[in-house]
């Protein structure tokens, strides 16, 4: 039997840290290679559904993350033009009982640290920073990656967790990204600077014409995450740059004063020109596979990017167990269940972006979509997403 003993994980973000932990938990020695000079996270807040907490519990870090997260009372969508509520999904005890976990928001740094520290405590995990992978080779009995200094690293298998601009993906699939034309600005605002009427213990999305805003609390309510998105008027290139308040304000004319007041609060802005990719039929061949944004980069509209990476990691570990340590067979099993699920996320996310940014008659139709629906109706609609757990992760969902 081809029992896998060693693995290389490329990329040390949330997905890479989770992959290293999941592989080590099934007895595989992991070398993680990270191109940055230190392993950590940047950015601001992310949202975690019950499916993410199921994955975190499987990885053994659920309680640590719960201590750092803010549990929300509900999820709301507001109309950014007239300021009225369009839909509210309660995320209290009934929601948690239905899905076996909470809905929460957390700073990216806090969740990454929880997963990475757990990985570091496992003696099977080692890592190298300042190591940018530029090439890879696959052989009958192993893989080899080469960094930009010419150093070579060999292992039985390779998992590419190196983000949306993945080198591993480029060397295996060589497909092109799909630039969305949507620009995202993110900022963190201290509680004292957040308007009092918007200090709400929930992710609140304000959907406007070709734009939207989101805000929610972080770190016990001491800070608030603020995200604004708009359809750019000019051609965009995928990447991150510094932005300007003037640009943001120019896209939010005609927005209700209540959400618009947030745009005066941030002192600095980072500008993301976003992209995703068309779902692929395969994430690699034989001894190479992908995980997280390297496998299925997705826009932010369903807040599932990190959640899917965590699911990927748990599923990968469970597939290896199910295949008695044969990672080549396990990679096939892993991809057979993860590719359809994450493709559904990518396509559903695109549609949610359209719904959030509706204008004219389409906005009127959007505001009627959830009219008359009760909480159980919402929960039934979310079952496919939030009902994911370790025990069903190898079943199509």
From TrEMBL:
List, alphabetically, the InterPro entries matched. FAD-bd, FAD-dep_Monooxygenase_BioMet, FAD/NAD-bd_sf
SUPFAM superfamilies in the record:
FAD-linked reductases, C-terminal domain, FAD/NAD(P)-binding domain
Q: What does it catalyze? A: 3-hydroxybenzoate + NADH + O2 + H(+) = 2,5-dihydroxybenzoate + NAD(+) + H2O
User: In this protein, which residues make up the domain named FAD-binding?
Assistant: 7-345
Q: Which residues form a coiled coil?
A: none
In short, the EC number is: 1.14.13.24
List keywords of the entry alphabetically.
Aromatic hydrocarbons catabolism, FAD, Flavoprotein, Monooxygenase, NAD, Oxidoreductase
Signal sequence bounds: none
Q: Extract one GO molecular function annotation from the record.
A: 3-hydroxybenzoate 6-monooxygenase activity
**Gene3D superfamilies named in the record:** FAD/NAD(P)-binding domain
* Cofactor(s) needed by this chain: FAD
The record's comment on protein family reads: Belongs to the 3-hydroxybenzoate 6-hydroxylase family.
Q: Which NCBIfam families match?
A: PRK08163.1
Q: What is this protein called?
A: 3-hydroxybenzoate 6-hydroxylase
Q: List the taxonomic lineage.
A: Bacteria, Pseudomonadati, Pseudomonadota, Gammaproteobacteria, Enterobacterales
């Amino acid at each position: 039997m081809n029992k896998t003993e060693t693995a290389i994980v490329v990329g040390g973000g949330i997905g890479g840290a989770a992959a290293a932990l999941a592989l080590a938990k099934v007895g595989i020695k992991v070398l993680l290679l990270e191109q940055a000079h230190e392993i950590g996270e940047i950015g601001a807040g992310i949202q975690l559904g019950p499916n993410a907490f199921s994955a975190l519990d499987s990885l053994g870090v659920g309680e640590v993350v719960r201590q750092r997260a803010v549990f929300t009372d509900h999820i709301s969508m507001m109309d950014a033009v007239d300021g009225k509520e369009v839909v509210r999904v309660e995320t209290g005890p009934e929601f948690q009982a239905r899905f076996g976990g909470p809905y929460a928001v957390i700073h990216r740094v806090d969740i990454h640290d929880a997963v990475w520290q757990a990985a570091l405590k496992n003696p099977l995990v080692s890592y190298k920073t300042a190591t940018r992978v530029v090439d890879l080779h696959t052989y009958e009995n192993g893989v080899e990656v080469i960094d930009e200094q010419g150093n070579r690293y060999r292992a039985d298998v390779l998992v590419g967790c190196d983000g949306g601009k993945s080198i591993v993906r480029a060397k295996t699939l060589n497909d092109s990204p799909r630039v969305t034309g949507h620009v995202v600005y993110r900022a963190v605002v201290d509680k004292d600077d957040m308007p009092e009427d918007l200090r709400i213990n929930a992710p609140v999305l304000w959907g406007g014409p070709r734009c939207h805003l989101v805000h929610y609390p972080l770190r016990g309510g001491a800070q608030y995450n603020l995200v604004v998105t708009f359809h750019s008027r000019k051609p965009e290139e995928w990447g991150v740059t510094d932005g300007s308040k003037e640009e943001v304000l120019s896209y939010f004319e005609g927005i209700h004063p209540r959400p618009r007041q947030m745009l005066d609060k941030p002192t600095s802005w980072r500008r993301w020109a976003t992209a995703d990719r068309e779902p692929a039929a395969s994430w690699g061949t034989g001894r190479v596979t992908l995980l997280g944004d390297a496998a299925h980069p997705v826009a932010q509209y369903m807040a599932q990017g990190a959640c899917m990476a965590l699911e990927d990691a748990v599923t990968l570990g469970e597939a290896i167990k199910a295949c008695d340590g044969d990672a080549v067979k396990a990679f096939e099993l892993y991809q057979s269940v993860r590719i359809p699920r994450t493709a559904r996320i990518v396509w559903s996310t695109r549609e949610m972006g359209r719904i959030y940014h509706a204008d004219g008659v389409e906005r009127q139709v959007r505001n009627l979509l959830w009219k008359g629906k009760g909480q159980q109706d919402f929960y039934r609609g979310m079952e496919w997403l939030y009902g994911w757990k370790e025990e069903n992760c190898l079943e199509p969902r």
